[in-house]
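Handoff note, outgoing to incoming analyst
You'll be picking up this chain. Sequence as last confirmed:
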Amino acid sequence: MLLFLRASDSKRQQSLGEATRIHKGVRDNLKLHQQVRQLRDELRKAYSELNRYRQTHARAVTNLRQFERETTAQTSTLRRRNPGRFTVCVVTN
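Most recent structure output, in case you need it:
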């Protein structure tokens, strides 16, 4: 009878150990799922910010090109009105 109890205790210990490992695995899995959710949220925010900067850049380029067209047109007009008197200075960095 004593051997039977020890065998049962051994099985209980084994079952308890297995349950503990399963619980730890589930807990670790939930932590990983939470980290994945956080990383996805950060990635979504990063893409949103990237799109905002792309839009800002596109507007800046559009405005710059419009300014260049207007400046070129104004320069041409001044040259036509004042031939020989108008010089253009180009400043480069």
